Description:
28% helix
Amino acid sequence: MRTVVFDAPPAQATAHAWMPSSPCGPGCIESIDQVGTGRVVGRLLGVAGLLISFPVLNLVTPQGKRERLQRGYARTLLSCLGMELRIVDRRIDQNGRGAVDEGSTAPAVYAPSGTGAMVVVGHIGWTDIVALAAVQPLGFVARADMVDWPVLGKLATLMRVIPIEREKLRALPGVVAQVGARLTAGERIAVFPEGTTWCGRAYGSMRPALFQAAVDTATPVQPVRLRYLDRHGVQCTVPGFVGEDTFASSARRVLRSRGMVAEVVLESVQAPGTDRRDLARRCEAAIRGAELSRHGALDATVWIEAGKTRVQDPSVGADAPEVRRPPRRLRPVLRGRGRRVETVGG
């Protein structure tokens, strides 16, 4: 029986008291089987070729066929990273049937084309963006500095990422407004409500702030359970972007790994309702189920009012009533049955 040791140091100092912080560290990352240097070089060349050719092909492809092209590119990119894609659709309709008919060859998607949907998922690392786009193309709310990263920066620009600067709390209502506008326009937007990355075996609470966009626009929310497995079917933490990781160190670790599977599980769609905190709790329950975080309940907090967006108040307990601040004061702003649908080889 394998023993796994998790490193959970105290959270590092952050820019402000409400900034999400993960206790995951280097000790959370467990190595798995690896490929040789030649295979790594081949994967890098494949990634480079895809990123060079995609902008040109996307431009010359008719609008109606771009979604298929983009999904194909994302799946090929995931394969170049050494991962297979596994999609499990657990959604059921009002009659208790699966969202995809038995025997159907149609791929599972978050929502029909032209239909707005907020996709909510726990955040593990930068590979999450590729894995989610491999199911169906969508936009993302992601850290603002991602556009400056090598390789992923260009991809982030092409995917029209909505940047969020966690250090600038006052900018959050504007991010919520952008998400709402994109949802109203019929786009699919993925958000990571934990506000930071975790190792995959541990996770934080779903912060309610970004859920306001779904409430304001009456947009359905698709909870997604994302995890990475090794070649033996055991959950692994190799893609975890935690601690002092840089993009380069994380990319080397991913590219050297053998036999990883990105498993994307589509849970039952949640109605937006009128209360973002309730919506956040429902989505977290749908994604986590009875699963317990290895680092425990580290994020039991509530939120204070900041215009239309509340922010976390670390000074009160989770069961305390919500605190509303006077509007003129400085307002910091910022949270069935399983059935495999398809598997794409890596």
